[in-house]
Structures are given as structure tokens and as C-alpha cells.
Design brief:
This protein is of the alpha/beta class. It has 21 helices and nine strands.
Length: 459
């Protein structure tokens, strides 16, 4: 008993002081910082212009020639799946599908099924989907800012948007979705100078919502979208009515210290299902070393790998699909095909890759890592600053970067619910679109109740 009390004390005291510590002040960000070419500053077009995806014949023919004009790949080791990365024995059929069977015209029409627009925010033309429900005048419409990450894109949301925007007699509101391509991703312009990390990206996204007429809105994000959404909730809590994330993750000091303390006696701090996901720590850190090699490269030398991925569609495909395999279900990396066909149709995965290839955005997209993990950006300490915005966590079974709500609560003080799934991975909106949408809709309903109880003005 004495041993248990001692261990409990060692665990609780540091946690107590973590909670009691004074957070750093909000960073002083320029809310109108110009990221485009200086010569266009006086010519900014603030209109909201319709946009359509266009796979030009010139681009398609160039792509097919590149896919055909390639060297023979080194065969994989005997008995190997995706443990060494993308299995080269699978490469031929993927490239052949992309070059000969992927229906470019049909997929272009699919990608244009929702209304899309561009508008210039702080010097950058930002591309976004804007999907409104078909409703009567008696039903309130609420805006949801839907944010993607890397190596995903707005393509992740196409199957879930119809569920999100569906009309239901069970509720007195409907959701309209605004899903932008992050700056430098997809068909959105990239910054022309250094400094656009996730903090600056959050300002651009908030200003986009203001441009569209939304002074208050809900936010949902996964991957980079989770980080950026968390920043918006931190910097503009008066604007955000609720934050839903399927990758609850903070990188504050508590996120490292609490799991270390918990390792002494995990069941004292964490629930059994959390212990299973977090420990032993050696397995977690082994996974980090094995799966996050790309992260170090992006954060230090994005333009080196960016040139290779820009020049080679084969390289781009295997680079992205290997991550889809490992992040959807890491156990599938033991399979020769990486388990990709178990979770996604081929056209879905190639659609997503096309949103990097067609606009030539892979290099500018991965620069976000270098900008966010620069010394200057880390000094904003945004993950150390708590936010009162009501928050809802969705945790999938196979999310690699699992974080206990006990840790997440240091950052998000008002966690209303934690939905724990026994299925799904990192790309849950694409993999389980209806499950994802149902959880977001439920969260918005609870956010509305919370805001009413706490006298926080809704729309």
C-alpha cells in the first residue's frame, strides 16, 4: 500500500503543477500579413469566384509519358510486405492503372460534383468547396469549417459531405460545409516567402470564413487540420462555437511528461483501453522512429524531396500510398499489397494523388512542416495556451499518434465527449464517411446546447 501511495504521489504532484502553471501569452500575429507577390498587393481581387477542377489533355499526356518512361524497379525482398516502405512488386499494377485505366474525364466530373470557389486571402488565392444543404426557410443553417492535412486533401471529404449536409427531422439545424485546400495544397496558392506555419495558416482560414460572411462557426480537423483548427480555437475563441477533431494531439510539455509519469503505474492514470494504446512506451517510440522518417525530411529539407516528387509521378504515388497503408492500419504493412484494397477503392486514392500532381503542389504542401517546426514558430507556444472552446474528440482504433484525453485536456479545457471507435484509422472521413459524419453532427448538437447553457452567442 505504501508503494502505491508513493507512486501515486509521484504521478499526481507534477500533473498538479502542470495544471496550475501560468500559460504563455497569445502570440502577436499580423492578421493581415501578405503572403503573395508584393507587386500584386495593390491589385488584390477580393471577389468570390467559381472554380472547376480541370485535368487538361496536355497534363494527362505528360503524366502518361512519365509513367511509361521509367526504369525497371528493384524487386522486393522475399516474403516482405510494406515493412521496407512501398512494396516495389506492387508498383507496376498501380502505375498501369493510373496510366491506362484511371478514367480522367469521369473523375474530373466527380471532383466537380460540389460547388467550388476561389478568393484571395492575404495575397493567396484559396480554393474551397462550399456545400449548402437543400432546406426550407424554417431550418437554421450552421457553418462548419472542414480542414484536411497531409498527405490528404479535400478529396477526403467527398463521401462524408452528403451525410454532413443531409436534412433530418430529428434536429432544428443543418450544416453547410466550407472545406478549403490549405495554402500550398491542392489548388490553393502557396506563400512566396518564409514564415507560413500552422499559426499563420489558421489566420488565413479564419479570414476566409470572415470573407464568406461567417463571424462565428464550427471547426473540424484531422492531421494538420487538427493543429490548425486548435490554433483557430486558441487565437479566436470568440469565433469558434465548437471544435471537433479526429486527431486530438498537442505537443505541450504535458504531452511528453504525463505518459512518462504514467509508465510507472499506467492504471493509476489511464483507462484500460488507453493503457493498451499507449504502453509499453518502447513500442510507441519504436513506431515513431519507424513511421515518422518522412517528418524529419519534410521539416528540414522539403525542397530536396519536393523536387523528386514533383518530377516523378511514380515516386509521388508510392510515397503517398505507403503512408495511407501504414496510417490506416499499421498491421497491414505485413501484407504484400499494404492492405490498401481493404479500405479504399483505387480511384479514391488516385483522386487524392491527382490533387497534388495536377496543380503541382506537393513541394509547397510539405514546406508546412519546415515552417511549423522552425524555431520562430515554435516560440509562439500555441500548444501551451489553453482554450475554453467546447471540444469533441474522435479516436479511431488505428490512429498512430494516439493521445490520452487526460493529456489533451491541458490544452482543451472543455472536452464534452470522447468517441472511441473500434475501427478506422488516420483517414477516417474517407474510410468511414457515415460514422465520421454522424459523430460530427452529434458534436455540433452538443456544442449548441453547451453554448446556450454558457450564454455564448450562437450565429
Amino acid at each position: 500500500m505504501l508503494r502505491i501511495l508513493l507512486i501515486t504521489g509521484l504521478a499526481v504532484i507534477p500533473v498538479y503543477f502542470l495544471y496550475k502553471g501560468n500559460p504563455p501569452p497569445l502570440p502577436d500575429l499580423n492578421l493581415n500579413e501578405w503572403w503573395g507577390p508584393e507587386e500584386l498587393k495593390m491589385l488584390q481581387d477580393k471577389s468570390i469566384r467559381p472554380f472547376k477542377v480541370n485535368f487538361s489533355n496536355v497534363m494527362i499526356e505528360d503524366l502518361r509519358k512519365r509513367l511509361k518512361r521509367r526504369r525497371e524497379y528493384v524487386p522486393p525482398l522475399e516474403g516482405v510486405g510494406f515493412e521496407y516502405g512501398f512494396n516495389s512488386g506492387q508498383t507496376e499494377r498501380w502505375l498501369r492503372y493510373w496510366a491506362k485505366k484511371y478514367p480522367f474525364e469521369e473523375r474530373e466530373k466527380f471532383l466537380n460534383r460540389f460547388q467550388q470557389y476561389k478568393t484571395n486571402i492575404q495575397g493567396l488565392d484559396i480554393h474551397f468547396l462550399w456545400v449548402k444543404p437543400d432546406i426550407s426557410k424554417d431550418v437554421e443553417t450552421v457553418p462548419l469549417l472542414l480542414l484536411h492535412g497531409w498527405p490528404g486533401s479535400v478529396r477526403e471529404f467527398y463521401e462524408t459531405i452528403p451525410h454532413l449536409t443531409a436534412v433530418s427531422e430529428d434536429r432544428d439545424y443543418c450544416i453547410e460545409v466550407i472545406a478549403p485546400s490549405l495554402a500550398g495544397f491542392g489548388f490553393s496558392d502557396a506563400a512566396v516567402r518564409q514564415g507560413m506555419g500552422t499559426a499563420q495558416m489558421s489566420v488565413v482560414m479564419r479570414n476566409l470564413m470572415r470573407r464568406l460572411g461567417f463571424e462565428k462557426f464550427y471547426v473540424q480537423g484531422g492531421d494538420w487540420g487538427s493543429i490548425i483548427g486548435g490554433h483557430i480555437a486558441t487565437l479566436f475563441p470568440q469565433d469558434v462555437l465548437g471544435f471537433h477533431t479526429n486527431m486530438p494531439l498537442t505537443s505541450s510539455s504535458s504531452s511528453f511528461l504525463v505518459p512518462l509519469i504514467g509508465a510507472i503505474y499506467p492504471s493509476l492514470l489511464f483507462k484500460p483501453n488507453e493503457v493498451e494504446r499507449m504502453y509499453p512506451l518502447k513500442d510507441f517510440y519504436s513506431m515513431i522512429m519507424e513511421e515518422l522518417g518522412y517528418f524529419h525530411l519534410h521539416a528540414t529539407k522539403p525542397d530536396t524531396i519536393g523536387i523528386a516528387l514533383t518530377d516523378s509521378p511514380a515516386g509521388l504515388l508510392v510515397y503517398i500510398l505507403q503512408i495511407f497503408s501504414a496510417w490506416t492500419c499499421r498491421e497491414d504493412t505485413a501484407r504484400a499489397d499494404g492492405g490498401l484494397n481493404l479500405h479504399f477503392p483505387k480511384e479514391q486514392l488516385i483522386d487524392n494523388i491527382m490533387l497534388y500532381w495536377a496543380p503541382n503542389s506537393i513541394n509547397t504542401a510539405i514546406r508546412l512542416y519546415a515552417e511549423t517546426f522552425s524555431k520562430k514558430h515554435l516560440e509562439t507556444k500555441l500548444d501551451e495556451i489553453p482554450t475554453p472552446v467546447p471540444t469533441w474528440l474522435l479516436q479511431t482504433k488505428h490512429e498512430l499518434l494516439y493521445q490520452s484525453p487526460l493529456v489533451t485536456k491541458f490544452k482543451f479545457n472543455n472536452i464534452l465527449n470522447v468517441t472511441v471507435l473500434n475501427e478506422g484509422g488516420h483517414f477516417v472521413a474517407l474510410e468511414l464517411p457515415e460514422v465520421f459524419a454522424d459523430d460530427v453532427i452529434r458534436a455540433v448538437g452538443e456544442f449548441r446546447k453547451w453554448n446556450k447553457r454558457n450564454e455564448k452567442a450562437e450565429l
